[in-house]
């Protein structure tokens, strides 16, 4: 009989014993038996479920099931009512708030943490993730800077690598990611960095293999889904890419790059309404991003809405003079006037200036216009 089975027998024999119940729940949760732990909580006496230790474990079950809102509802009263709040309560509440898209609340909660030993590393990692969500990348790196050892060093290195990647320093990002992957070949953030750097280098086969490995361990990784979606898109499987990117947008609704890439998949399928919806989502996140206005311009141009397209082109080029989507929109407007060579020259210039990912040919734009142009 294993330890969980022994504890279950003991807890059955003493149903009012909160210590036995908590030990049993901890044993199941450490083994990943979330549903078993949740089922046991449902049958536990109400008086036991109201105790702080049991509520904490019920909240952890909710978190592991993906129900951050329920976890917040269980943990917030504990933070308010307990005099000496255990670190786990503070950490899990802040993490749940981060999952719910409330980084400001998460940072406020984390300020109550009284961490010791390895808890300091856990606190630093969570704070770095919150700051990352807030795009305070340098501040997040500062939080992790003092950590140079311990059981979670590879996780710290992976997080540092992702921060360097998002800052734009691929050299440091790759070096830190490789250190993390040497210690833990399945480290999540380090895998994302390795896959993304390979993707940016147009090593699509390697990138695909890396992202697939990440997703095998972390199927809800928005960044890995986003990366794999781009790989699939580059291989020409637009429906497959769209499915992956739609999934990624569900896990990362605040990631502009996902919405833009999804919009281009939708454009490739002639789905102007879908592309407009995705650009709207990007616009809600940042109203000053030039490529989003360029996307609006392209949609308007493809619909034959010349006035609206010209207005969006002006806004896009004012915000980003080098933006590509506004140039594509200009090429469509030139095609409407029969100025085919000028339209082609605009797109050829884009390709010359920015070769690589995210650049489409003149022939593609021409075919797209014919595909979606309303028939008179």
From TrEMBL:
Its membrane topology is listed as:
Single-pass membrane protein
Pfam families per UniProt: TPR_16
Coiled-coil parts of chain: none
Protein name per Swiss-Prot or TrEMBL = Tetratricopeptide repeat protein
Q: What lineage does UniProt assign to this protein's organism?
A: Bacteria, Pseudomonadati, Pseudomonadota, Gammaproteobacteria, Lysobacterales
Domain of life the protein comes from: Bacteria
Q: Which family does the UniProt entry place this protein in?
A: Belongs to the Tom70 family.
Q: Which UniProt keywords are given for this protein, alphabetically ordered?
A: Membrane, Repeat, TPR repeat, Transmembrane, Transmembrane helix
Primary localization class, coarse: membrane
Does the UniProt entry include the keyword Nucleotidyltransferase?
A: no
Cross-referenced PANTHER family: MITOCHONDRIAL IMPORT RECEPTOR SUBUNIT TOM70 (PTHR46208:SF1)
Q: Which InterPro entries match?
A: TPR-like_helical_dom_sf (IPR011990), TPR_rpt (IPR019734)
**Where is this chain's protein located in or outside the cell?**
Membrane
């Amino acid at each position: 009989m294993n330890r969980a089975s022994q504890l279950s027998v003991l807890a059955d024999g003493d149903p009012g014993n909160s210590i036995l119940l908590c030990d049993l729940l901890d044993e199941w949760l450490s083994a990943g038996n979330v549903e078993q732990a949740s089922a046991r909580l449902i049958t536990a006496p109400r008086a036991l479920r109201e105790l702080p230790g049991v509520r904490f474990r019920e909240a952890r079950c909710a978190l592991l099931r993906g129900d951050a809102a329920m976890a917040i509802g269980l943990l917030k009263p504990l933070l308010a009512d307990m005099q000496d709040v255990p670190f786990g309560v503070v950490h899990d509440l802040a993490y749940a708030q981060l999952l719910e898209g409330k980084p400001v609340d998460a940072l406020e909660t984390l300020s109550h943490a009284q961490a010791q030993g390895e808890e300091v590393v856990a606190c630093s990692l969570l704070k770095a993730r919150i700051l990352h969500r807030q795009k305070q990348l340098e501040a997040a790196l500062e939080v992790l800077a003092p950590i140079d050892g311990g059981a979670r060093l590879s996780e710290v290195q992976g997080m540092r690598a992702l921060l360097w990647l998002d800052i734009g320093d691929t050299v440091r990002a790759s070096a830190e990611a490789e250190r993390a992957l040497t210690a833990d070949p399945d480290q999540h953030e380090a895998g994302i960095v390795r896959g993304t750097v390979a993707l940016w280098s147009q090593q699509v086969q390697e990138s695909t293999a890396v992202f697939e490995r990440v997703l095998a361990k972390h199927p809800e990784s928005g960044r890995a889904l986003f990366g794999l979606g781009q790989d699939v898109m580059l291989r020409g499987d637009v429906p497959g890419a769209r499915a992956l990117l739609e999934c990624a947008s569900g896990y990362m609704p605040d990631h502009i790059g996902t919405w833009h890439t999804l919009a281009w998949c939708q454009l490739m399928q002639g789905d102007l309404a879908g592309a407009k919806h995705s650009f709207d989502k990007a616009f809600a996140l940042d109203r000053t991003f030039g490529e989003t206005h360029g996307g609006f311009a392209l949609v308007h141009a493809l619909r034959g809405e010349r006035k609206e397209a010209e207005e969006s082109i002006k806004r896009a080029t004012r915000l980003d003079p080098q933006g590509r989507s506004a140039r594509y929109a200009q090429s469509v407007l030139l095609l409407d006037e029969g100025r085919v060579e000028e339209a082609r020259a605009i797109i050829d210039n884009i390709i010359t200036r920015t070769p690589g990912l995210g650049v489409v040919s003149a022939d593609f734009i021409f075919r797209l216009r014919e595909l979606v142009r309303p028939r008179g």
